């Protein structure tokens, strides 16, 4: 098991009510209602769910790692986008698990360079390191015409 040798940041989030409750943090203030999706037997609703939160964290962390790898490699990119799709379902042993698909767009470089940077990001990203060998992670390096556009 890998241990943190030099802690740089720490945060605490409390969950109340599981998939039909809320999550909150005191500092910085974060509060979000959690709703179980209809596809999982829940009522749906306006809240987010753990899979969305994981996808948000993984995509942001991976994009940050990608930009760090580009800077360290002295490769100028014109921007990047990482879209994480998290799947939830039954696994071989009858329990439940998640899988992740990352669609990664690296702007301003050729495809081979983009692949090299994405591989470096996958090696460096703390989420990738934490999930390696534990869940299926599929990574697709996109061509620029596949951009997902601005914010949602």
TrEMBL record:
Gene3D superfamilies: 2.20.25.10, 3.30.300.20
Coiled coil start-end: none
InterPro entries xrefs: KH_dom-like_a/b, OHR, OsmC/Ohr_fam, OsmC/Ohrsf
Pfam families for the chain: OsmC
GO biological process: response to oxidative stress
Similarity comment: family membership: Belongs to the OsmC/Ohr family.
Descriptive protein name: Ohr subfamily peroxiredoxin
């Amino acid at each position: 098991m890998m241990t943190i040798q030099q802690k740089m940041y720490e945060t605490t989030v409390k969950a109340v009510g599981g998939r039909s409750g809320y999550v909150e943090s005191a500092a910085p203030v974060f509060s979000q209602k959690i709703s179980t999706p209809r596809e999982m037997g829940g009522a749906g609703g306006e809240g987010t769910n753990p899979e969305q939160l994981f996808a948000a964290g993984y995509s942001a962390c991976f994009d940050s790692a990608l930009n760090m790898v580009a800077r360290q490699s002295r490769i100028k990119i014109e921007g990047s986008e990482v879209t994480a799709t998290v799947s939830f379902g039954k696994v071989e042993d009858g329990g439940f698990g998640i899988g992740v698909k990352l669609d990664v767009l690296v702007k301003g470089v050729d495809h081979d360079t983009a692949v090299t940077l994405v591989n470096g990001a996958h090696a460096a990203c703390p989420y990738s390191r934490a999930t390696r060998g534990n869940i299926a992670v599929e990574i697709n390096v996109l061509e620029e015409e596949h951009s997902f556009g601005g914010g949602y």
